[in-house]
Structures are given as C-alpha cells and as structure tokens.
Write a structure and sequence with these properties.
29% of the residues lie in helices and 34% in strands. It contains seven helices and 15 strands. A hairpin with a 5-residue loop joins strand 13 and strand 14.
C-alpha cells in the first residue's frame, strides 16, 4: 500500500482534531504535521514536502489562498472551511475538494475517493511512454506512425481525440483522460478540459483575461489556458 504524507492547516485545534479523526479510517494518509497559521504552514511544507494538505481558508493574518500564492511547490489541496461561498475560487486554484465544517463521514469518504483517483493518476504517470515512442493512427484511409515528440497538440472531440503533427490532423477513438495517463507530464501539459499541449512547441506565453494564460505555439496556433490550469502551469516544473 502506498502511503502519502499529509498535513493539516487550521487555526482551530478542534478542527484539526476533527480532520485527524476522519483520516484515522484511512491509514495510507499519514499525518506528519499540523499548523495553525500560514507562516508555520509554509515552514512545515518546506520541511516535510507533504503529498496532501487539508487547508482552512480563514486564518489569522493570511488566508489559505494567500498561503497557496506564496508556495513554490504546492501539495494536493483539500479545503476545509465553515463557509461555502469560496467553492468556485477553491477549484480555480486546483483544489481536489472543498469540505464544509463540520465534517460528515459520508462526505469525507467522497473526498477520499477523489484523492485516491488523483494519486492513482500520479502513480500511472511515473512510467510514461518515452518521447521517441511511435503511435499508430488510422484515420479513415490514412495511416500514420508518429513519434510522440512530433505531436504538438491533442484535442478532445467527444469520445475521440485529434492529434496535430506536422501539417496533419488525425483522430483516434480514445478519451483525453486515458491518453493523458500515458504521457510524460514533464513534456505534455493539460492546458484546459479539452486540450493537451507538447510544451516543446510553446513559442510564447502571455497573460490573458481574469488571470488566464495565452499560449502561442511555434506553428502560430493560439490557445487559451483555463483559469485552473493557469495556476498549475505557473507551478509546473518550478524551481
């Protein structure tokens, strides 16, 4: 069984105890520390390099959102809060889930399911296909045998995915999620719900509307990164 280092950040001791009790039913998530404010949390994250963080939003001096903006490397985040009006903003910063206090056992189980699904994806990506690997694509009467390194963009088309390479476009019957699990995430990045880009083909990145990023490929194609993935992209492969 894989284990994951977990920390709990909340200014209320009883709230931290509540999360620990809920986690006691899931031994793979090992609590390695807790903090009551953003400053101590940042030091704890630097020391422990946790995989997962349960994070309160309202804390003294700095909020949970403030903490995330200051971090260079961000653990997977589940927000825990007494307020429900921040849910949209929470998912914009790529939170796995948003729990409203007091915690309910059945709702916490749903959260654990989301966490497990995310870490399963991460484990699957530890052995990605090499960039020289060639994939066979049959699109109508055309057949292609294309190295992954030559694919600059993959776009969801319902139950199909369209591959862009050279001057060609071709589709296969495969979901974007299944394709993403086999790709090297040091090279390919999911920029929004329907597109994955080969970052080797990125020519220029510019800020866009509402903190979104705009990407221009070496081929001149312009693509907008979603708000959620713009946050992730800024942290992607950061030093």
């Amino acid at each position: 069984m894989n284990t994951y280092k977990t920390i709990i950040i909340d200014d209320e001791r009883l709230a931290r105890e509540e999360v620990k009790r809920a986690l006691s039913n899931y031994p793979e998530y090992i609590v390695v520390g807790e903090a009551s404010n953003a400053y101590d949390a940042a030091n704890l994250i630097e020391k422990e390099h946790p995989d997962l963080m349960f994070l309160d939003i309202h804390m003294p001096e700095k909020s949970g959102f403030d903490l995330l903006e200051e971090l260079t490397v961000v653990p997977k985040v589940v927000f825990t809060t007494a307020y429900d009006q921040y849910a949209v903003k929470a998912f914009e910063v790529n939170a796995l889930d948003y729990l409203v206090k007091p915690l309910r056992e059945e709702r916490f189980a749903v959260t654990i399911g989301k966490i497990k699904a995310e870490f399963s994806k991460i484990e699957a990506r530890k052995n990605p296909l090499p960039m020289h690997y060639k994939i066979f694509i049959k699109d109508g009467e055309q057949c292609y045998f294309v190295p992954l390194k030559d694919i600059r963009l993959i776009q969801s088309m319902g139950n199909y995915a369209r591959f862009f390479f050279g001057s060609n476009k071709a589709m296969i019957k495969r979901s974007l999620n299944l394709i993403e699990e086999k790709l090297d995430t040091n090279v390919f990045f999911r920029i929004n719900r329907s597109q994955i880009v080969n970052t080797e083909y990125i020519e220029k990145i510019t800020p866009g509307f509402k903190h979104k990023l705009n990407i221009e490929l070496t081929t001149g194609e312009a693509i907008e990164v979603s708000s959620r993935q713009s946050v992730r992209f800024k942290n992607w492969n950061s030093l």
